[in-house]
């Protein structure tokens, strides 16, 4: 494991407690770093909306995002059990018969995933979602890997709930709802850009995210301007950038 990357990741996650941050970009960073630090093929994040219903918030790949969506839509899978119990859930080998999630297991194996580790995003007794690790080969993680994965989920949860000194639960719920709504716009922008450039969705998201970071813009703002633009040109004209920074 890359010790320097591990250290940098925890610093970045902790920084959200003292500075403004783009929630969607933050969650994608959590998914990407989880894959980089642990022997997972992909990762996804699901968060509960104000009504307590899970929604897909981020994923390191399109395949992982589809698996997260499959679980939510079919009300079946390890991430749902993890969220409901507030405890880690391990699906060590999805190719074996007798799983409590038969539809999910079949879909995951078809997508190239044979194991899943679902880790709760929790602060004390409050569980706001789950960090889900997908494996091309059977898991589980070793104890050290599990501790690191859970620590990433825990620190990210604190960052989400405490950003800008947010203390009241209803305010935190509004923040999470805004982040989930932003993801819809980002998905629309990904689809538009993928069609425009004839590239896959993962590459389209990478271009949007890189442009936002390189120009010190919020990912959601870049996505919304691209979706709302009269043309399908990307990147946006320079005047858009100047207006956004005023």
Which CATH first-tier class of the largest domain would you pick? Alpha Beta
Radius of gyration: 18 Å
Overall structural domain count:
2
Mean pLDDT: 84
CATH-defined architecture of the largest domain: 2-Layer Sandwich
CATH-assigned homologous superfamily of the largest domain: GAF domain
- Using the alpha-carbon principal axes, give the shape: globular
Unreliable stretches, pLDDT < 50, 5 or more residues? 238-246
Tell me the strand order in the biggest sheet: 2-1-5-4-3
The portion of residues forming beta strands comes to 5-15%
Work out the number of β strands: 5
Descriptive tags:
five-stranded antiparallel beta sheet; 57% helix; 10 helices; 246 residues; disordered C terminus; 2 domains; alpha+beta; Beta-Lactamase; single chain
Could you explain how this protein is built, in words?
The protein is an alpha+beta fold and 246 residues long. Helices cover 57% and strands 14% of the residues. The chain is built from ten helices and five strands; from the N terminus they run ααββααβαββααααα. The protein has a five-stranded antiparallel sheet with strand order 2-1-5-4-3, sandwiched between helices. The chain is globular, with a radius of gyration of 18 Å. The chain starts with a helix and ends with a helix.
Per-chain topology:
Elements: H1 3-15, H2 23-37, E1 42-48, E2 54-59, H3 62-74, H4 78-85, E3 89-91, H5 102-110, E4 115-123, E5 126-135, H6 143-162, H7 169-197, H8 201-214, H9 219-228, H10 238-245
Antiparallel strand pairs: 1-2, 1-5, 3-4, 4-5
Helix pairs in contact: 1-2, 1-6, 2-6, 3-5, 7-8, 7-9, 8-9
């Amino acid at each position: 494991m890359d010790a320097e990357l591990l250290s940098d990741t925890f610093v970045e996650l902790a920084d959200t407690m003292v500075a403004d941050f783009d929630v969607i970009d933050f969650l994608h960073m959590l998914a990407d770093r989880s894959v980089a630090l642990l022997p997972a093929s992909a990762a996804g994040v699901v968060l509960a909306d104000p009504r307590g219903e899970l929604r897909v918030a981020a994923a390191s790949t399109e395949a992982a995002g589809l698996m997260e969506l499959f679980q939510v839509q079919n009300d079946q899978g390890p991430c749902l059990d993890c969220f409901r119990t507030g405890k880690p859930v391990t699906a060590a080998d999805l190719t074996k018969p007798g799983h409590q999630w038969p539809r999910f297991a079949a879909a995951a194996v078809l997508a190239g995933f044979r194991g899943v580790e679902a880790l709760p995003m929790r602060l004390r007794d409050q569980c706001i979602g789950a960090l889900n690790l997908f494996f091309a080969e059977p898991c589980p993680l070793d104890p050290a890997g599990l501790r690191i994965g859970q620590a990433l989920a825990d620190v990210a949860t604190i960052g989400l709930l405490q950003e800008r000194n947010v203390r009241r639960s209803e305010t935190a719920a509004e923040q999470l709802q805004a982040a989930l709504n932003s993801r819809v716009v980002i998905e629309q922008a990904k689809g538009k850009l993928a069609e425009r450039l004839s590239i896959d969705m993962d590459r389209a998201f990478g271009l949007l995210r890189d442009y936002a970071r390189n120009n010190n813009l919020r990912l959601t703002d870049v996505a919304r301007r691209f979706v709302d633009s009269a043309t399908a040109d990307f990147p946006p004209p320079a005047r858009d950038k100047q207006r956004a920074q005023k």
